Each structure stands twice: as structure tokens, then as C-alpha cells.
Amino acid sequence: MVLWSSAFLSTSVIWLIVGCILYVFKPELRTWLFLIFPPIDVSTILAAGLHTFLFCILIISTLHSVIVYGLLDMYIHLTLAIIMVPVSEFIWSHKYPFPPTSKTTSTIAFALAYLGWYFHRHIQQSLGEKEPLRRSRFLLASVALFLLLLPTWRVQDFIHYHPIDMLIYDAQICHNKYLQSVGNTTSLEETVARYQKRYNRLPPPGFDLWFEYAKKRSAFIVDEFDQIHQDLEPFWKIPPHVLRKDTWIMVSNPWNEISGISIRQGQASVLPNVLPTHKWMLDGVAVLINKFAEHLPDMDLAFNLNDEARVAVPYGDLEAPHQKNQPPVETAPNYWYPVAKDPIGDTVFKDMSFRNTFREFGSVGCPPSSYARSHPHISSRSHICHECTAPHSLGQFLANWTGAADICHQPDLAYLNGFYLSPAAFKTSHQLMPVFSQSKPHGYNDILYPSAWNYMDKVKYSPSADTGKPGEPDFKPGYPDVPFKDKQNVLFWRGATSEGVSSGDHSWRGMTRQRLVHMANNLTTSAHDYITILLPHFDDYKKYKYVTLPGTSPQTLGLKTDIAIVDRIARCGGIGLYDCTDQEKEFGLVGPSNFQAHWQYKFLFDLDGAGFSGRFLAFLESHSLPFKTALFREWYDSRIRAWHHFVPQDPRLHGVWSTLAYFAGVNGTLYGDKIWWKAHEAEAERIAEQGRDWVNKAIRKEDMEIYFFRLLLEWARITNDSRDKLGFTA
Fold it and tell me: Can the keyword Transferase be found in this entry's annotation (predicted)?
């Protein structure tokens, strides 16, 4: 009875201490502590009860062990279990050379733990506290130690092929298969049949006009528009009159930072209440739409003016069979509401700027069983979460570009991108709303469309030759895009700290742009700055081995970068705060340069800002090789192939040095010895030229028009009261 009383009393005290700590330091968990976090269902109560029961059993077992075996014995055995169980699990499941592990360290750690236990037992025997240990038990313990360590010595720490060679080969095969599915055909009947097979419904009305429009513009892709299907499919659950009303509500409130375009009688025009700062953007969209507006029915469209995405519907709500099934308002069929003369105050959006949004508006779109929701707290922000990278990686290298966008297995992204850490302009909703956006991360439900930024050539690939003669007054240096072999063997990036806002909490340290600049310029020989690079094996250059080196090693290996923040630190600070000055001290700022100067470098790094990168298509058009990491995805993402058109990089950036070493080559010293590794220049140039050829074939301005035309035909059907009866038949 005393034992049980002590157990329950100890449990209560421990829970009280934990609860007080959480109440003080985790305000967001206060409602959960008092069991008022909605929804409270039977499963929640059962889980809490089971948790409490198991905790009581733990306390009882602990007290029993203390009484029977003594406090010191229990402590030693518990320490051994805490150390050896997770380590054993890791070495038995770790079958690959990455992440690299030390055989010697693992062996010494286990041996010391074993010897500690052995000498403790020997001392107890000498003092007469324990009976002598039988030889059979000693041998059994030794065999167990040997078996535990066996996988450590069986795993090879080198590989016989370079992963990038395999990734390039696989990308070629996948792209060839993709080309067979895009439907480059001259037959309308065949295209309609493929549409029905692919999407399980008839094409929308006007499909024949779209097909003719696409063929006149030499469209290479006429079948594969899966992004449109994925974006629009959830809206089939919402009645058309509700979609039209939602559009009116959004564009009638300027606070939403959503403006509209109205299409009437085959002409697109910007609604008069557009925010002046973004009128250029809507004007560009209207120019794009008017290329084919004569073939469209009347409709209104709501465009997101911010870089950040807007709509994140929780997983359970999106899977629900019906949403917003309110009765229709008495209006004419297919009625579009005129914009209110005076702004309305109604809004479904919530301002979440300047705060971490990952759980509430990121992983909320993932299944409850996903890693991001079942393991929301990562063990360390200063170490790579290998469980997060494994599903989309081959060793250190990003192998699945689409999978890398899926945040549902990557809870660590909450602290690795400015959009999740502290977005600058983030007005968002859990309610499914018809918002058209230029880009979005995984889990968001915005409708993607081709950006006016790209269509209006805000950033343009425009190399130029020198004019005049050197030394003469009229001489002007040009910016030629020279052949790949003549470019500087350098990885180049210039940009601003525009990814997110750091207003005193040092969140800039997790943002991708700042991490890239730090990695390129500020690594030291300290242990926390060590890097891992895949290099040829010291004894056999046909093998490769991951080696962990001081942060200054890229320079000694001859790897060259020119990566810097331009002009000033943006989006930082606050009264009495030091995030601006801290970044100024950390990063060496440089002056602005002409965008066309990029073409002198072999390797160009492309990163997101507050939203998508506006440079990537220009990079693809050049003879340089783009390295790209991206959280935001655009309308054309399914058309481009990583390792075939560009070189993908994980947002953790842990594979950058190994990738650069492969393409740029190594010529320097390692541990004081000379090391040389031939650059894979032919592979780099081939990927660069494949990307250049493809962007001029499948991501032209004409392709933006074709995509948007088809998107709006589909949208016109979804917002039509008779949509279930509408369809085109050849």
C-alpha cells in the first residue's frame, strides 16, 4: 500500500512540476493542459488516461527496483539502457555511408559502457554485496556486445559510384517517359480522349478553341496539365454560387490585399479598387488574359497581391465530402456580383505576419499520422534532421524534387525558411477560398497561375556584346553569355534578406539566404561548423567516401564561391533590438551589380525570397548551370526535371559543397596532402544546355498563355451553375 501511495504521489508531483513549467514557458499549451483544447473526444481522454497509467507503472517499477536492487544499481542499468538502446537502434538501421559514422567511436563507447558495468560488478563481488559472476554470464554479455557492434564494422564507409551519376541517369529516363505522356498530337479527338482517361471527366466547353490556340503556338504539351487538376479539384465540393460570392467578398475588402480582374464580353480589365502598389501586376495579368479573353465567358478572378501564399485548409476539412453547402441567394443564373463601391469589412483572412506559421498554416494540411504532425518537435535545430531528408534523398543529394516539396515528413522546415519562421505579409485563411497566386508551398490550396513578373520580363535574360573599342570614350563593356567552358568556375549568388522578417528573435539565422551566405563565407574550424563532403577515396579514385572536415576546407580544396548580400540588411530590427546590426557584422555587404553579369559564371544559385524566385527562368535560358533550392512551387514545376534541366539542392544546404566538388572539380590540399579531382564539366554543360533548350520549348510566354487559357476554361465551368452538365465532346 505504501508503495502504491508513493507511486501516485510521485506521479502527481512530477506532473505538477511539468505542468507549471509548460504553463510559464509555453503559453500556447495552456488550453491543452486544462483539457479544453478542441475537440475533446473519447480518443483524447483514453490517450491521456493511458499515458497516466503507464507513467504510474514506470514509477512503481522504479521504486521496486530501488528497494530490491539498490539505488546505484538501478541508476547504472538505467543509464546503460538510455545510452545503448538508441545507439544500437541507429547502428543496426544505418546501412549507408551517409551520414558518416565513426566505427572507432561506436566501439569505444560500447566498450567503455561494458567495462564500467563489469568493474562495478567486480567491486560489488569484492565487498561481498553480490555473488561472483558466472563465467557463462560473462561470456553471454561479451557475445551480446560483439553482436551489437557487428553492424558497425560490416557497413562500408565508401561507395563504388557517385550518386550524382545515378541521379543524372535516372532523370534522363524519367524525362523521356514524361515526353511520352505530354500529348504532342495534332488530333483534337485524341486529345479529348486522353483528357477523359486522365481526369475522368469531359473537357470544359471551349476546349476546341483552346486546342486550336495551343497548336497555332506550337505547344509541345497538350495533355499534361495535372497542376490545374490538383489546384481546382477541391473547389468541385463548393457550390458555384458560393465561389462567385467568395470572390466578391475577397476583392471588395482592400485589407485582404487581394484585387480582382473582371472578364466581360471577351475583355479582361482590372477592377478599380486595386492597390496602387500592385497595379502593374494586375495590368500584366490582364494583358496575358486578353490574348485569349475573346473565347472566355464572363467571370471575376481574385488575385493575391502578396508574395506569400494565402489558403491552407486543414487536412480533415479538405477531406470532408461537402463544404459551404449554404442555399443560393436569389440572383440570375451564373451571376457575378459587382464590386462594392465602399469597402466591406467582412474577411475570412487572419494576419499571421511576423510569427512562426508552420504548425497552424503549414503542417495543418498533412495527415495526422505524418511525421510533421506526429513529431512536431525536432531534437536539435543545430543538427540536420536525417529522418526528415531520407525520404527524398540519395545519401547527401536531393533525389526527389517533388518529394522535397512535401513538408509532411519535414518538421524541421519550421525553422529553416523565412516563410515559416516570420513571413513579412501573411494574411491567411483555413477556409477554402478561390485565390489565384503566383506560387505556393506544399499544403496550400491557392490556385497557381503564370506570374506577370515573368510574362512582363521584370527580370530578363539579355546578354550583350561590348560596344565601341576599349580605351575610347564610347566604349561600353557588354555582358556576353560565353560558352560554358569559358565561364568562371565559380558558384555565384547575389540577393537581399527578403525571405522573412527578423525582429529581435534572431530568426534570420534559420533563413535559407542567410544560411547560404554564412556557409559560403563565414565557416570556421570550430566543431559546429564542420562540413561533410563526398570525395574520391584516398586509396582508390574509383570509390567515394564522405569525409567530415573543418568549415574552412572548401577554400583549401579549391572550391570557389562568390555569394553575398547586396547593399543593406532588410526586414529586420525593432526598437532596442539588434538583428540588423548583428547581420551587418556577420555578412560582408556588397554593392549592386548588373543582372546580366551573372552569365560570366558557370554555376548560378537560385533561392526563394518571400515567395517564388523571379530569376530562375532567366537562369535556365542562359548557358550557365542553375543550382536551385525552393520551398515555393510554380505552375511549370511538373514540366522541369531536376538533374536534367537544373541541379536541385536541399533547403538544408548540406549537399552544396559535395555537388560543387563534383561539377567544378577539386584542386587543393586535404590534411596537408595534394588532392585533385577532375571536374565533371561535360555533365554540367549538358544539363545547362538541356535546361536552356527545354525552357525555350515548354516554358515560353506562349506556354504561359496556353496554361492560363486552359485554367480559366476549367474555372469557368466550376463556377457555372450547370457545371455537372457541361463538357466538350469532339
Answer: yes
